[in-house]
Design brief:
With about 325 residues, the chain is mainly α. A two-stranded antiparallel ribbon has the order 1-2. The protein is elongated, with a radius of gyration of 45 Å.
């Protein structure tokens, strides 16, 4: 048989409540309420996560023969592996056993017994073991959330091909759902670890409290704008969105062209001397430009007709030439 990846839990031992300082009773009451809240939220989150993992298992076994060589499908076994590891920790059972030890029980066969008033206090070894499970599970949750995000990116890229789109959408939806459940689970683990740490401080005054237990998922490595996002992933090409460039309008260009055209040909005067940036035109500018162009055409026509009349001489009156009269005209006109 393969060796277990986690150590075996120590035996649960406890002592009577009367041996504990009465000043600590109120604090333990508050911590037990926190453990009860942690247990309820933990069971709800793990139940939903287990359902998602079962659906993933069914899809994996139905599709592995056809898609096992596809790039997007290679992320599915990784999600399965992390999910099984998380469920295998059986953390809700550990929390229930810790709560049962306060009422003098070594098992959770009788859930109604947990409602009784606490009359025992567990020893330090088992509390330390449960706290270590909380911290280890929190690190596993953070790592799994990171891998789920990478898997979702691969699924989103695979959607662009359009092949097997229904299966890819299912995998993407399940990875997103699991990531949301793990975020809720991370908060519960943080609450449970803080409660166990406070219990250790009450039982052992020399214990250094690790107050504000490190929440690894709140570190910059999990953020979208973190240093992790700046690293280059060789498997997934990043989209080139380009850079924004401020456009400069060359104001001297149009003036130079106008002066050069005036030097070359003096026949057609250019009346439009205003400089307007490209792609910026209001209704008033459009009306002014239309008026100026209309005046240009009328001026050009007037200049052309004036040049034509000034260059030619005034017409002279021609005298009518008298026809030579012959003898026949003299006969009939007489």
């Amino acid at each position: 048989m393969p060796a277990e990846r986690c150590p075996a839990p120590p035996p649960i031992t406890f002592f009577s409540r009367s041996l504990l300082d009465s000043r600590c009773h109120k604090e333990i009451d508050i911590l037990l309420k926190d453990l009860k809240t942690c247990s309820r939220r933990l069971k709800a989150a793990m139940s939903s996560f287990t359902d998602e993992l079962r659906i993933l298992e069914r899809l994996y076994y139905k599709s592995k023969n056809q898609h096992r060589m596809a790039l997007f499908f290679k992320r599915v076994p990784e999600i399965r592996r992390y999910g099984k590891r998380l469920v295998g920790l059986d953390l809700p059972e550990r929390v229930d056993l810790l709560r049962a030890s306060f009422v003098g029980l070594n098992s959770t066969t009788d859930p109604k017994a947990l409602r009784n008033t606490w009359n025992h206090v567990p020893e330090q070894p088992y509390i330390s073991f449960v706290m270590e499970r909380f911290v280890s599970c929190s690190a596993l949750v953070c790592k799994m959330r990171e891998r789920l995000r990478e898997a979702y990116r691969h699924f989103a890229l695979a959607m662009q091909s359009g092949a097997f789109i229904q299966l890819i959408i299912l995998f993407a939806a399940m990875s997103s759902r699991m990531s949301a459940l793990l975020l809720e689970l991370q908060e519960v683990l943080h609450l449970g670890a803080s409660a166990c740490d406070s219990l250790l401080v009450i039982l052992d005054p020399t214990h250094k409290p690790t107050a504000k237990v490190a929440n690894a998922c709140d570190q910059p490595s999990m953020g979208l704008g973190s240093s992790r996002a700046s690293e280059v992933d060789l498997d997934v090409p990043l989209e080139d969105v380009g850079h924004s460039i401020s456009r400069h309008v060359p104001t001297d260009t149009l003036v130079t062209v106008v002066e050069h055209s005036n030097l070359e040909s003096n026949a057609l005067p250019i009346l439009e001397m205003s400089i307007t940036p490209p792609l910026v035109c209001t209704a008033v500018d459009a009306v002014e430009r239309a008026t100026v162009r209309a005046s240009e055409k009328s001026t050009v026509k007037a200049g052309t007709s004036f040049g034509a009349t000034s260059g030619s001489q005034s017409p002279r009156l021609k005298k009518a030439k008298k026809k030579k009269r012959d003898e026949i005209d003299d006969i009939f006109n007489s």
